[in-house]
Amino acid sequence: MKSSSKAVQTKSKIKQTFMDLLRQKKLEDITVTDICKEVCITRGTFYYYYQSAVSLMDELKNELAQEIIAVIKLRFKDGDWNILPIIFEILKKNDPEIVRVTLNKTNGYQCVGRIFASLKEAVRPTLMYKIDTLNGESFDYLYSYITSGISGVLILWVEKGMNPETRVIEKSMIKMINRSQQQMANEIPELNTFKQKIGLDSSSKQK
Known about the structure:
Layout: H1 2-22, H2 32-39, H3 43-49, H4 53-77, H5 83-93, H6 96-102, H7 108-130, H8 136-159, H9 167-206
Helix pairs in contact: 1-2, 4-5, 4-6, 4-7, 7-8, 8-9
């Protein structure tokens, strides 16, 4: 028990020191020696937990992504379907340096893409219930459209300094998403009718 508790404390100190260093240096400039010196541990102790400073950053990014995924799935079950405000809420509570590195232009689309890929099947039943004319293919297009927009907004927000006041952004995006859903709901029946007509025309020509 003591050994396990000490390991948890050591990992926690390593992570906190790393985040402190991120406020002073770029990720690529942080070395294992820097971390060990601040935590007062040997390099062997560091390598027992992490392969490099980059692998430590990867773990922190993964923890942030998993937290976002878990909270959104929970909120969806409770009927809260507005993804963007939930993500903003979580990002604001996390260390800004971790958020900045995770959602910068280099890493952002890959990270957010992984989050939305993990959420897709959890979101599917709710969205298809709201728009009962959606089929599997049209859901894929709508989901890609909505999540691509949210990804761009999040990365731009980080680029512009992560202003803590996001209500205007959230309100505007929710309106746009709702309009997109409504437009999709209106156009799918027309598209299906058109496809049926094309199918009938094709079959009649063949006859």
